[in-house]
Amino acid sequence: MSASATVQTRRRRTRARSALSRGAYVVLGTVLSIVALAPILATVIRSFQGRNADAEGLTLGSLTHLTLRNFSILFSPSADILHYAMNSAIVGVATAVVALLVAVTAGYVLARVRGRWVDVVFLLVLAPIVVPIQGLLTPLSVVLKDLGLLNTLAGVILVLATYQLPFSIFVMRNSFAAISVELEEAARLDGCSQLQVMLRVILPLSWPGFVTVGLFAFMAGWNDLITSVTFLSDQSTYTLPIALTLLSTHSNFGISVVDPGLVTGATTIAALPVVALFLLLQRYYAEGLVAGSSR
């Protein structure tokens, strides 16, 4: 066999192996995607089933009896779901803003200041991560009562933002540490103040970490139930998770009974904003997590 024929044979084998690898990658990726999406799809379908969703199950027969009953109840004027959704949006956005403001300033200082004590402070900042928030609810109730913030959205925001700070500072500190100090020095030589350096140099380069912190904090505020149900007693201040929990139950001979159809309908409604945000910001989110684990 000539040298050219041998080269062509090797090329054909390489192409065959490459095509086989791509085919296996597509098949494996498709299977994993189906496995990951199956629970989400099942939840969405169950949200269109009636009160007997558990008894009917997910069968071909049940797919012919789908109904908008759950959503008509949840979006009825008496449910006032938009009011509770607005409360949750206020808590989520405010939690993200507070966490970002503190995490950006603290993370920058911990990333730029040198000294042995800085690492000690950083470890102390991370320490609250190991403390479950359930163990802090009672003392926090006393503190919020003394501050006049009990039964207010501001109190819930303060608690949630504080609990998000260790992770937020961790991500922002490592995002800032990955940025070269020479860039800041060059900006200062060009006449930029410290604030201009932060706004024009540091923050644009740390955008993935910024988005990651904001997304995590918003999800914490939007999905929070245990903190809100502990500190809020006035119905006008209820957040969406509390309202959906109450709407998903009905009284049967004086006993509260969970309505499976309403539960899955409520779950679908609550998940939509978070899913939309994640899909829009997933590229920055992934980059921010990698930056946060680089040190």
What does this structure look like?
This protein has helices at residues 3-46, 53-56, 69-74, 81-112, 116-126, 137-147, 153-177, 181-189, 194-205, 207-223, 226-231, 240-247, 260-292, and strands at 249-252, 255-258. It has 295 residues and is mainly alpha-helical. A hairpin with a 2-residue loop joins strand 1 (249-252) and strand 2. Helix content is 74%, strand content 3%. The mean pLDDT is 81. The longest helix is centred in the N-terminal third of the chain and has 44 residues, at 3-46. The protein has 13 helices and 2 strands. The chain has a two-stranded antiparallel sheet.
Low-pLDDT stretches are none
Mean of all residue-level pLDDT scores: 81
SSE topology string = HHHHHHHHHHHHEEH
Report strand %. under 5%
Work out the number of β strands.
2
From the N-terminal CA to the C-terminal CA, the straight-line distance is 55 Å
Highlighted features:
single chain, 295 residues, mainly alpha
Question: Could you provide a short overview of the structure?
Answer:
The protein has 295 residues and is an all-alpha fold. The chain has helices spanning 3-46, 53-56, 69-74, 81-112, 116-126, 137-147, 153-177, 181-189, 194-205, 207-223, 226-231, 240-247, 260-292; strands spanning 249-252, 255-258. The protein has 13 helices and two strands, in the order ααααααααααααββα.
Blueprint of the fold:
Blueprint: H1 3-46, H2 53-56, H3 69-74, H4 81-112, H5 116-126, H6 137-147, H7 153-177, H8 181-189, H9 194-205, H10 207-223, H11 226-231, H12 240-247, E1 249-252, E2 255-258, H13 260-292
Antiparallel strand pairs: 1-2
Helix pairs in contact: 4-7, 4-10, 4-12, 7-10, 7-13, 8-9, 10-13, 12-13
